[in-house]
Amino acid sequence: MTSEPLLVYNRIDRNKRLTRVMLLAFAVAMLPSVTAASVFVVPFVAFFGGAIAYAIYGPALQGRIEALEPPAMSGLPGLLDLPRPLLGILSAILGIALAVAVTALFVATAVLIARYGARLLLRLARARAVSREDEPELWRVVEALCIGAGLRVPMIHVIESEAANAFATGSNPEQASLAVTRGLMQLLDRRELEGVVAHELSHIGNHDIRLTTALSAIVGTLSFPFRVSTMPIRAAFRVNGAIGAVALSMGFAVLVWCVLITWEGLQALTDEKVVDSIPTFIQLWGIHALVAPLYAVVVAPIAALLIRQALSRQREFLADADAALLTRDPAGLAAALIKIGRFRGERLSVGEGSVHLYFVDPEGEDSLLHRLFPSHPPLEQRIQLLARMAQGIA
User: Fold this and answer.
1) Sequence-distant (≥ 6) Cβ neighbours of residue 162 within 8 angstroms
2) How confident is the model at residue 61 (pLDDT cuts 50, 70, 90)?
3) Mean pLDDT across the stretch 226-230?
4) Staple 157 to which of 42, 105, 115, 179, CB 3.0 to 4.6 Å?
5) CB within 8 A of 246, min separation 6: which ones?
6) How many degrees, rounded to 5, is the angle at CA 112 between CA 107 and CA 120?
7) Which comes out higher in pLDDT, residue 64 or 264?
8) Closest Cα to residue 149, out of 26, 385, 324, 32?
9) How far apart are CA 277 and CA 272, in angstroms?
10) Which residues pair with 178 in a beta bridge?
């Protein structure tokens, strides 16, 4: 008679597919921002490209440019009315600029995900690696559960905070890290701590950590323009609440002004008189140039939050179920959720890009943003699921 493994990692292939789908959604969400960024690359491509071409071809290139005759037509030319060699040059410049912008974005994101993702997240959380001698009780809990789950023991870190939370990160189970706050170890007994650790080990075993680490980089990238534009407001709130309120009002006024200017610009570009006097390709490019900045600051961060919300709910429910299967004690994990839900002490200071990594939402119900775009399912629903698994919890 063969014994079945305690954890069946049946979400690995699904998580790999989800990662590809998420990267595709990220590319679609970033496209307007990338094409807008390519506008700033065009002058550099034109300058350096022209210099290189002139250095190679010299007078022959100058002769061909001088031989180009202007189109014989009245009014402004349309795109197709331009000489074909000039069209080729413009197309090459725009194509190279767009390729440079796309490549730069994806290389930066890939480096952030593959090389610096887990390390950066641990550094931002101020997590400190601990040995067996430093935290013997925590090590015993993790080692015992790893044996049952058939996993290699991850690097164990402790966050010196009174907040009760934990998270796992890494690119794969062999290079995974588990971080636990001091407050969690003090709040929970061993049985409850085992439930939380088993939940995080489920994320490791099912390669959730690769998906969520990539998601952290994507949320950070999409929300970067918003963070930069709101930096003065956040700095003002740190100095004084009244100053922050004034800065917020000014920021809102600037946003309304930008929306009005964009609307007036769009109306001007679509006016019948303007349509007849400006080539179509310039109109389309002007509309794009007006809309893209507002998209990057307002719409792209919302798209990032929607991507995160779509991936978080079922992932947390399944990790709770796997943890109950591993510990054979759903009531222990439910008790941990109840204690953490009732905790009203210190909160972790966590960036928006890494909120979804944690066992519970570090912001809790105090954040209006997380009530609108939750990074975790409600604690009550998670406890109800575990109660059904335990056939009733007192």
Assistant:
1) 181, 182, 183, 186, 345, 346
2) low
3) 80
4) 179
5) 236
6) 165
7) 264
8) 324
9) 9
10) 156, 168
**Is 327 a residue whose pLDDT tops 60?**
yes
Q: Cα dihedral sign for 263, 268, 270, 272?
A: positive
Query: For residue 237, what is the enclosing H or E element?
Result: helix 231-239
Task: Determine what percent of the chain is predicted with pLDDT higher than 70.
Answer: 72
Query: What does the block give as tokens for 160?
Result: 């010196």
Run of H or E including 309: helix 300-327
CA 291 to chain centre: 22
Alpha-carbon span 389 to 326, nearest angstrom: 13
- How much is the average pLDDT of 308-330? 85
- What residues are labeled active site? 200
Q: Which of 24-33, 90-99, 326-335 has the highest mean pLDDT?
A: 326-335
**DSSP 8-state symbol, 390:** T
Q: Residue 183's pLDDT is what? A: 92
Q: Are 343 and 187 in contact (CB under 8 A)?
A: yes
- The beta-strand segments (E) located in the chain are 127-129, 155-159, 166-169, 177-181
CA-CA distance, 134 to 137, in Å (whole number)?
A: 9
Contact assessment for residue 357 and residue 168, using Cβ atoms and an 8 Å cutoff: yes
CB within 8 Å of 377: residues ≥ 6 apart: 312, 313, 316, 317
Q: In the β-sheet with 166-169, what is the strand arrangement from edge to edge?
A: 127-129, 155-159, 177-181, 166-169
Q: How far apart are CA 190 and CA 142, in angstroms?
A: 11
pLDDT of residue 340: 92
Q: CA-to-CA distance for 22 and 26, rounded, in angstroms?
A: 6
More confident residue, 284 or 223: 223
Q: What is the 3-state secondary structure (H, E, C) of 168-232?
A: EECCCHHHCEEEEEHHHHHHCCHHHHHHHHHHHHHHHHCCHHHHHHHHHHHHHHHCHHHHHHCHH
- Give the pTM: 0.72
Residue 308 is inside which H or E element, if any? Answer: helix 300-327
Q: How many residues does the chain have?
A: 394
Compute, in degrees rounded to 10, the torsion defined by CA atoms 369, 371, 375, 381: 170
